[in-house]
Fold this protein.
Amino acid sequence: MTEKKNISKNKKTDVLPLKNTNKLWAEKIKTQRSKQPSINQFVEGIVSGDISFLSRAITLIESTNSEHQKKANEILERCLPYANNSIRIGITGVPGVGKSTFIEALGNHITALEKKVAVLAIDPSSSVNKGSILGDKTRMEQLVANPNAFIRPSPSGCSLGGVAQKTRESIILCEAAGFDTIIVETVGVGQSETAVHEMVDFFLLLKLAGAGDELQGIKRGIIEMADAIVINKADGDNEKNAKIAKTAFNRALHLYPPKETGWQPKVLTASALKNKGINPIYKMIEQYVSDTKHTGLFQKKRAKQNKYWLIETINQELKTSFFSNSKVQKQLQEEIKKVENGTSTPFNSAKKILPLL
Ligand code: GDP
């Protein structure tokens, strides 16, 4: 009897009755929820330049939770009037060319001019090959510690279209937070360069000098997109080769039609490691911005990019809703069998599936 009494006494002190536990949980959840800032708090925090609000808002953009996405969209809408006031620079190049070393050097140069730099990345492979770009903490060590720099790895876990959209939205938030220079990095593979090219004002291609074969094995499309080619690692024994490469690229660039912005692409050499050639590169970008703003082609390019993303977003959404439609999925399986065994042509089968949405 005494033992029983003790147990029930202990129960009373150690374990709360169910009703109270639920109440406590409800309160805990409520405080946790209230810890998530309101839309107003987010917008005020971002516009005042608070990095933690900026980071958390980007996390909302990247979330797959529909509530988060809704909130992110409202924050974006409210931040739009504060955005657009920046130079957006795209940087591409094969792994090992020196992108992160270069971005660190350029970023430090820009912040020394009392400007604020945000570095974002587009790497559709980052979900497969974890952290292949910007994910590695050892990259850009100095810039990471720089209070006027904000570095965000590539959003992961979705298609290039999804990653690109999230990065574009992050650019708006970074601009609203007062970052006047936005650098978007991408690896020189697949379609990611096109995506980056369509969201930046100035597109820079990093290259290495080879032994006279600079123009071989380089995708023509990338050269066409570039506003500047920078031959990196122009130091030590490599300096002479870098100069040869510069002449070769300069000659090649003249064979391309002039750009709509009226800009004649330039070739420069640099050593990101030795911090050489960075100032002329930044001066060139400033020159580009001043020239194209003067002619109105800067804004025209941005307007054209907005049109590109409108069409691109519709394409993406149509594709997603088409392939997730159950009628389409069923018919598609049947038509695949038919085209495989030769009882239908791909064209006729497609014509049967397309009207199903
Ligand atoms: P990423 O893969 O394009 O980001 O290239 P990294 O910036 O990680 O650089 C790859 C390697 O090249 C590293 O060992 C760097 O130290 C080296 N590197 C980068 N820039 C230069 C440079 O200007 N000169 C020399 N000699 N090495 C460099």
About this structure: DSSP finds 15 helices and seven strands in the chain. The two ends are 73 Å apart (CA to CA). The longest helix spans residues 297-323. The longest strand covers residues 87-93.
